[in-house]
Amino acid sequence: MKYQHFILAALFLSGITGCHSSSKSEETKEHAPVTTAVEDSMAKEIAAPAEEAVSEQEIQAQRTFLETFYSGLDESFEPDYVKQFITPNARQILSDGYEFDCDGGDCLAIWLFTYEGGGDTGPCLSRTIKPLGTNKFLVTHQYEGEEYNVLLTLIKEGDTYKIDNIEKQ
Fold first, then answer.
1. CA distances from 55 to 65, 110, 131, 148, 168 (A)
2. Residue 114 backbone zone (phi > 0: left; psi -120 to 50: alpha; other: beta)
3. What's the rounded Cα separation, in Å, for the pair 114 and 73?
4. What is the secondary structure of 25-51 as a DSSP string?
5. Labelling 142: which of 4, 5, 80, 123 has CA 20 to 30 A away?
6. pLDDT at 7
7. Sign of the CA dihedral 39, 40, 43, 48?
8. Do residues 166 and 90 touch, judged by C-beta distance below 8 A?
9. Of 138, 142, 118, nearest to 129 (Cα)?
10. Residue 27: φ, ψ to 5°
11. N-term to C-term CA, the chain
12. Closest Cα partner for 151 from 142, 163, 164, 139?
């Protein structure tokens, strides 16, 4: 009898400890997904700069492609030159944009890259190429007293890019 109090106290304490331990593990289970979600979001935040760096590299590569295209276009304003840099979709846009008589049926409105057709613009004073989202670039040509904007959409084809869409702005 003398030890009965000690035995009851021991059982009582072990019961409390057992409940506390089980509730502790349940709390851990409940909070585990939250911790994982926080860790996952932190991992995404850590990974985001690397993705942005890749995106910045991609944007720069696309801009370089367009700069190369326009540099060559300044030297050789010819359909054969342009055909190397466009997809069939862009070729159709240029073909549809050619509103004049076309002897061979293969005429392209390549001026859509640089100015509004049918007018005399004079020399190009400046050209800016500005990214506007995924694979889209606004190219602005500044002429004396006039500005021409064209939105170009690029796609990756093999190791290079191609102009896939041309929209006057």
1. 15, 29, 11, 27, 26
2. alpha
3. 9
4. HHHHHHHHHHHHHHHHHHHHHHHHHHH
5. 80
6. 54
7. negative
8. yes
9. 138
10. -60, -40
11. 97
12. 139
- Distance (Å, whole) CA 23 – CA 21: 5
Q: Which residues contact 137 (CB under 8 A, 6 or more apart)?
A: 62, 63, 66, 129, 130, 131, 151, 152, 154
Pairing of strands 146-157, 124-131: unpaired
> pLDDT tens, position by position, for the chain (169 residues)?
555 555 545 444 444 434 333 444 444 444 444 443 444 444 444 444 444 444 888 999 999 999 999 999 999 989 999 999 999 999 999 999 988 877 777 899 999 999 886 667 778 899 999 999 889 999 999 988 889 999 999 999 999 999 999 999 9
The identity of residue 28, as a single letter, is: T
The pair of three-digit structure tokens given for residue 159, joined into one six-digit string = 């190791």
Could you tell me which residues are beta bridge partners of residue 126? 142
Q: What is the rounded distance in angstroms from the CA atom of residue 44 to the CA atom of residue 38?
A: 10
pLDDT at position 66 is 97
